[in-house]
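Following up on my earlier thread - several people asked me to post the actual chain instead of describing it. Fair enough. Here it is, all 180 residues.
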Amino acid sequence: MKKVLVLPGWMTSLRLYQNNISDFSVDIGQLSEQSRSADYVIGMSMGALITLDDAPNIQGKIILVNPPLPRRGLARWFVQWVKYMIFEFLFLERQKLTLNPIKYLRGLSRGAKLLRKDFSGTLDGLPKGKVVVVCGKDDDFFCDKLAVDFLRGKGIEVIKADGGHNWSEDIERTIDGLTV
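Reply from S.P.:
Thanks for posting it. Predicted structure:
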């Protein structure tokens, strides 16, 4: 069984709790051609939007972790990001960011483009049951009540896991349960 973890372009790695990162193929900033045929494609945060952007080409099941949806203005996302930085902050013990400023800026630029994109049509066009969302119960920043209501309104299953926006042990355990 092949599992692909899609991370935002400004990250270089994620340290998992129970799994070895070698249990996953990891794509950073974009989905590779061979990853599109994986049994499970798991997009985390902005990686979820990268995954959705390529969703029609993905053959397996899609798991979105704390996707920043629905489309909102960049100023609104900036306010959400400031709140995230104040109340939760980057989980630097587990998430590693790139030190390459060009990769970082390229990741931010792509992220800004994806945040402006309306994924309603993409989600409507996917077969029922192809997408499931895992959302941290305490993510009041990106995968908030508005996002959960939007996703459920599209008929997408949303599973709440203990944690906030950052990767948590319960989010990982929930994904393990979905990928058996």
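The chain has a mean pLDDT of 87. That should answer part of your original question.
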